[in-house]
Design a protein that fits this description.
Elements: H1 5-29, H2 33-65, H3 67-76, H4 81-95, H5 104-119, H6 127-130, E1 133-134, E2 137-138, H7 151-179, E3 182-183, E4 186-187, H8 191-199, H9 206-211, H10 216-236, H11 246-250
Antiparallel strand pairs: 1-2, 3-4
Helix pairs in contact: 1-2, 1-5, 2-5, 2-10, 3-4, 7-10
């Protein structure tokens, strides 16, 4: 299976890294050392892509500042959607506000989630990790394997956390869509954009659906990255004070 060799190598490397982290954390975390290693692995991934997240927020602020100009273009090219779209993206490109950049942090995490899925669903990363447990539940356990013992409460807690974070993120997305005249760089006027505006706040809930088919280890990754995203977004999107000009204070 030559086509899958890079993925196999990535899974093997991730397995070695997690095994090393597990041994390092075992004196402190005991039986939960592997789960703690997954949390640290997730944090490392998020720190790695944090510059992209900062660039995403800056781009959204630039697009928000351009909202009056976008509305002017909407009025000018109301009867020419193709020209309107071209002019809007030209405006964004000139201001360095690329709407596609907002998808990069999410897309970059997909390979890491796939590696964790294979690591705890196959023996590619070695059999040692497949035997690791959290609260007596194997980290390769899926919801479809049953909810007996501690599996039910453990998955229940993780899914509740995911739901809470998804609700908060959805609420924030709705507020942002209402405050800004554009959604993901697309003019909000028109049936297509209106549909997109309704769908975007629902996207955070897809993490809950994905968690239903992932092994416990990957669900821990999802919970960690979702909580990290919520905190990160709250910090990066906090209201910024507008500095007053010295002349304003003297007037």
């Amino acid at each position: 299976m030559l086509a899958f060799a890079p993925l196999h190598d990535a899974v093997a490397a991730a397995g070695s890294a997690l095994s090393w982290l597990t041994e390092l954390l075992e004196p402190l975390a005991g039986g939960g050392a592997t789960a703690a290693a997954i949390v640290l692995f997730t944090i490392a991934v998020r720190l790695l892509i944090s510059p992209l997240t900062v660039a995403q927020v800056r781009g959204e602020r630039r697009r928000a500042a351009l909202a009056p100009q976008v509305r002017e273009l909407q009025q000018r090219y109301a009867d020419d959607p193709a020209t309107l779209q071209r002019e809007v993206f030209t405006l964004y490109r000139a201001a360095g506000a690329n709407p596609i950049a907002g998808c990069l942090p999410l897309l970059i995490q997909a390979p890491f989630l796939l590696v964790l899925y294979r690591l705890f669903s196959t023996s590619e990363g070695g059999t040692g990790l497949l035997d690791e447990r959290l609260a007596g539940v194997p980290l390769g356990h899926h919801l479809s394997d049953g909810l007996a013992g501690a599996a039910g409460p453990l998955f229940g807690v993780l899914l509740v956390v995911l739901l809470a974070v998804a609700w908060w993120s959805s609420r924030r997305a709705r507020r942002a869509s209402a405050a800004v005249g554009t959604v993901a760089g697309t003019p909000t006027e028109g049936p297509g954009a209106a549909t997109l505006g309704r769908l975007l706040p629902l996207l955070p809930f897809t993490t809950v659906l994905v968690a239903l088919v992932l092994p416990l280890a990957a669900v821990i990754y999802l919970v960690t990255t979702s909580v990290w995203s919520a905190v990160e977004q709250a910090v990066l999107r906090r209201p910024q004070a507008v500095p007053s000009h010295p002349l304003d204070r003297n007037s």
